[in-house]
Amino acid sequence: MRVRVSISTVLGLTAALILTACSPSGTESRPAAGSSASTDSPADNDRDDAVLSSPELASRLLGESDLGTGYTRKPDRPSGNDDVTVLGCPALDDLGADAATGSGGGLDFPHRAKAAFTYTGNGEVTEELYSDTGRKLSDGTGRIFDAMTGCPAYQVLAGSTPIDITTQEIPAPRLGDEQWSHLLTFSSEGADMVVKQTAIRDGSVLLIVSGSPALVDRHLRAALTKATATG
Questions:
Q1: How far is CA 216 from the centre of its chain?
Q2: For the segment 129-158, what is each residue's pLDDT rounded down to a tens digit?
Q3: Contact status, residue 9 vs residue 103, Cβ threshold 8 Å
Q4: Can you list the positions of beta strands (E) in the chain?
Q5: Residues 6+ positions from 185 with CB-CB distance below 8 Å
Q6: What share of the chain is helix, strand, coil (3-state, %, to 5)?
Q7: Is residue 36 a contact partner of residue 169, using CB atoms and an 8 Å limit?
Q8: CA distance 39 to 32
Q9: How many angstroms separate the CA atoms of 84 and 157, rounded?
Q10: pLDDT at 21
């Protein structure tokens, strides 16, 4: 049976590979060599922003009223159910099986919120917010983005479905304190799909927007504005 890669599979897979590996796993984090981030100010020198709780982060996610017409929120995906094997990328392998499967539980940042939306049946966008100290957010996010962009081509098995992935680092908008961005091309059974992923760290808040490139570009600034609003 031919199994076509869908954007739902891709976004879930991307979240499994990237987001659950963002924080330290019990050892001291170090800045990744050759970090792909653009940095306006080192995390060590950031203002002492308070870490936000998960409910506070959830209240700062974009909703359907913020996005406009044509968007429908998707039901939350259960965590820890991704059956993913990484092939051909030792840097990702070195992060451990939990980074690839999304089943790490305590490995991910403890304060988080997420919302995913479909757009008129032709595209999706996912927003995720995390909160921790600036240093932890910086080190963790840099590690995983460097691991992925350090492997320009690799393969994953999502269950029994092989998906070829190529990565391309691209310039990130100069927003917040640090920025990361790349394009991932997912190929399976003759179908290709391009996903853009941009991460912005502003103080103690990390915003990651993933999905159809045009939708990421359209909503990134509004997402950051709402995520970092005060008062």
A1: 12
A2: 999 999 999 988 888 888 778 888 988 887
A3: no
A4: 38-39, 71-73, 84-87, 111-119, 124-131, 153-158, 161-169, 178-188, 191-202, 205-211
A5: 165, 166, 167, 168, 192, 193, 194, 195
A6: 30, 30, 40
A7: yes
A8: 13
A9: 5
A10: 41
Q: If you ran DSSP here, which 8-state letter would residue 106 be given?
A: G
Tokens 């089943």 identify what position?
103
Helical H segments across 49-164, by residue range: 54-58, 64-67, 90-94, 97-101, 134-149
User: Two tokens at 134?
Assistant: 């600036």
Half-sphere exposure of 20 (CA within 13 A, CB side): 24
Among 1-5, 140-144, 161-165, name the one with the lowest average pLDDT: 1-5
Q: Compute the distance between CA of residue 29 and CA of residue 37 in angstroms, rounded to an integer.
A: 16
Tokens of 189: 């059974």
CB 194 within 8 A of CB 214: no
| Residue located via tokens 């091309």 | 185
Helix (H) or strand (E) holding 82: none
Predicted confidence (pLDDT) per residue in 65-110, tens digit: 999 999 999 987 665 555 677 888 887 766 654 444 333 333 368 8
Is the CB of residue 175 less than 8 Å from the CB of residue 201? no
